[in-house]
Design a protein that fits this description.
alpha+beta, two-stranded antiparallel sheet, 6 strands, flat
């Protein structure tokens, strides 16, 4: 599982301190399932109540689960952190985390594509017709 350390601009607030680094990891299936469940809401529609997923909340819940920890050593805070704490990040730090998560996602996609080529399957091959 790939990881990336990000240096934050404003830092994650813990009391009077601001932890200035974050470690992110690649997405797991468990993260996706938990984020999806947390992103769903029951809403009233003309056709009755329906379960609706918010793509915005899904992205946020996945990102906060990708954060393994904020800070270093004894002061480190392990992730995932709760939404109420995640929203305390500055917009600049949130953007840094999103960019790092995107780099991890791109690298993981490239890794999987390379493995498929090693297995002798080109892109698009092997799909059911």
């Amino acid at each position: 599982m790939a990881r990336e350390t990000v240096q934050l601009i404003d830092g994650y607030p813990v009391g009077a301190e601001h932890l200035k680094s974050a470690v992110l990891q690649t997405i797991t299936t468990q993260m996706l399932i938990e984020a999806q469940a947390e992103s769903e809401r029951v809403v009233a529609t003309p056709d009755g109540y329906q379960l609706v997923e918010s793509p915005t909340l899904m992205a946020i819940h996945v990102l906060r689960r990708q954060v393994v920890k904020f800070g270093e050593g004894a002061e480190a805070v392990s992730g995932p952190i709760e939404m109420a704490d995640f929203i305390k990040l500055s917009p600049a730090d949130h953007d840094l985390l999103r960019e790092a998560a995107e780099r991890l996602d791109v690298a993981e996609t490239a890794r999987i594509a390379a493995e498929l080529k090693l297995w002798g399957r080109a892109e698009g091959e092997g799909a059911a017709s």
